[in-house]
Each structure stands twice: as C-alpha cells, then as structure tokens.
Design brief:
The protein has about 325 residues and is of the alpha/beta class. The protein has eleven helices and twelve strands. It binds ribulose-1,5-diphosphate.
Length: about 325
C-alpha cells in the first residue's frame, strides 16, 4: 500500500508500508505466531526492507531499518527469540561506512539467522525423537513447532505413539497442533486445559516449546505450561522442553526479568458478556522453574535446565549482547 512520497537521496520517492512494520503488526495480532517463527519472519522483513530501500544513503537506510526494528521489538514482548533475531540482523553493522556494505551485512546476518534457526529445528527433531518410546502417550501444550518436529521425526522413524494436545485457551492453539499432528497421521486427542492433571496419570512424556529460557533455567512458555509441569512433577512424568539456542535470553544474565505479555480482555470474554466492573486478567505466558524440568532439547544437545547460563555465554556470547560496539 502506497503511503506517500519522501525525500530520499535528494529525490522524491514513493513510499510504501514498510514490510518490517507490516510484519510487526501481523505478529502483534498473532496472524504470525510461535516464538521461532516470529523471529525468522522479523529477520526476513528487515532483509526485505534493506533490499527495497532506494538509493545509497547510509543514514536513511539505517533510520529505515531502525524504525522497522523498533516496531518488531514492540510487537510481542516475551519471546526472546524475536529480540535475538532482530539484534542478530544488526550484528557488526555499526562501524560500516557505505550503504552497500551495510546492505550486504544485514542480508548476510538475516540469512544466517534464518538458516541457523531452521537447521536447529531439524536437529531438535532428531535429538528429541530419541526421547519418545514405542507406545508412549505424549502430552503437549499450545502449538510449538519444535515439539511437533520431535513428534514428526519419531513418527517418521516408525515409532508408534499417541498425543494429548491441550486446547490452550483463549487462542486455542491446541487445535492447530491437533491439525498438524493429524496431517502426519499421528493419533491425537484434544483435552481442555483443566483436564491436564486428570490425564497425567496415563502420560509417559510431556513435550513443550519455549518463548524464552532464562539464565537460571526457568522456561517461559504459553500460559498454563507451569501447571502442566506441576502435574507432570507430581506424577513423575518427564517434562521436556524443545527449544533452539536463540530461545535463551542474554538479557537475563544482567538480572532482567522476563516481561510477561498481557493481552486484551476480549480474548477471554466477549464484549458485553460481563458487566464493566468485572476485571479480566489475561497473561499470555508463565514461567516454569528449572526444578520441574527434566531436560531441554536444543540443537547443541539435550541439556539440563541448569546449563542455561553456559548456553547463553557460549552460543550467544558477550559481544552479541553488546552488539552496539
Ligand atoms: C506460542 C507458544 C509456543 C512457543 C514455542 O505462543 O507458547 O509454545 O512459542 O513455539 P503464541 P515454537 O501462540 O502466543 O505465539 O517451538 O514454534 O517456537
């Protein structure tokens, strides 16, 4: 959609809705969702913005990208993968002096981030599949592509098992999960979120994804995950998280608390369904403490949650944290 015209490099140029801002809006409204997917789409959007920027004005190019970056970062506050992805795109760009160098670097960074993230998903599938045994009953919560990759790989290897998928109110991502699994031929049963403890006695393994993993090993994922973990702990069912290393949060090393997104009341109750004095609280994610987590399947191996700090330092690195050198 054309927005108007703008003076760029001394000439009037038609301007269009910035693709990064457009993608940010689609992320905010959850048209694009899932922690890894939003990060990859954000990186792709920044690459497209730098590609479509007309002219060779480095300052203008930087400002355009930074505007897109800010919109993307503001779109959903909890998933650190989004933050890691966006910052990865700007890695080593601050000292570049020509627009072409900047464009090339942004492109390379974005491509590398997307490639690494997609490869990580495949490796997680292969490593995680070892955790599923013939005849297992697996329970999953929400819709995690990483958890689904594990189940898909185990199924492709010929293991036969079945899955319980929680509905995951209010967005009902469990319906997406059930569809994804059904397409692969995996038997799946949807349960409402409050049925988790009731079915847990029959479950052999819990597999969930993550939006953020803190330096102390706590896993932040879809609201209700910590209740699933508690029920699994009580029933001595291994609770396994499937997450690429871009889900680990360098920011938590500096003591920062993970911001839990709260969304609109109308996602929980329809307008007019309750009188105006009734408050609705709609937190979207929660934190599962490391003591309830058996292991985290990453692309660099299956690790205990307590290894989170080492993963952050080794994989994401100090210089990455301070990308603005
Ligand atoms: C999705 C959710 C997923 C994680 C991991 O929440 O909590 O479990 O994002 O997903 P929402 P993936 O629907 O609010 O984005 O493994 O696909 O990255």
């Amino acid at each position: 959609m054309k927005l108007g015209t703008e003076l760029i490099s001394g000439r009037m140029v038609d301007t269009y809705v910035m693709s990064a801002e457009d993608i940010a809006e689609r992320i905010r409204t959850m048209e694009i969702r899932g922690a890894a997917e939003i990060a990859r789409r954000a990186a792709q959007a920044l690459k497209e913005d730098v590609d479509s920027y007309p002219g060779q004005d480095l300052q203008g190019m930087r400002s355009r990208l930074e505007k897109g970056r800010d919109a993307l970062l503001a779109s959903r506050p909890t998933a650190i993968s989004l933050w890691n992805g966006v910052h990865y795109v700007f890695k080593d760009t601050s000292k570049l002096i020509t627009a072409e160098e900047y464009r090339t670097k942004v492109r390379e960074n974005a491509d590398r981030f997307i490639r690494r993230s997609k490869n990580a998903l495949k490796t997680i599938g292969i490593l995680g599949a070892n955790r599923i045994r013939e005849g297992d009953k697996v329970l999953t919560h929400c819709n995690s592509k990483a958890a689904i990759a594990v189940m898909a790989e185990a199924w492709a290897q010929g293991k036969r098992f079945e899955v319980y998928a929680t509905e995951s109110r209010p967005w009902r991502q469990g319906v997406l999960t059930a569809n994804d699994l059904a397409k692969l031929g995996i038997p799946v049963t949807i349960i409402i979120d409050s049925a988790v403890r009731y079915v847990m006695k029959d479950i052999d393994l819990v597999l969930v994804g993550a939006d953020t993993i803190a330096s102390n090993g706590a896993v932040i994922n879809k609201i209700g995950t910590s209740q699933v973990a508690l029920a699994a702990h009580e029933a001595r069912v291994p609770f396994t998280v499937c997450a690429e290393t871009f889900k680990f949060s360098p920011r938590t090393i500096y003591g920062e608390l993970v911001k839990i997104e709260e969304r609109d009341a109308t996602e929980v109750v329809k307008e007019g369904e309750v009188p105006p004095q009734v408050r609705v609280f709609n937190p979207v994610f929660d934190a599962t403490p490391p003591e309830y987590i058996d292991s985290i399947v990453t692309e660099i191996g299956v690790i205990p949650p307590y290894a989170a700090y080492q993963v952050i330092i080794k994989e994401l690195g100090q210089e990455f944290i301070f990308y603005e050198d």
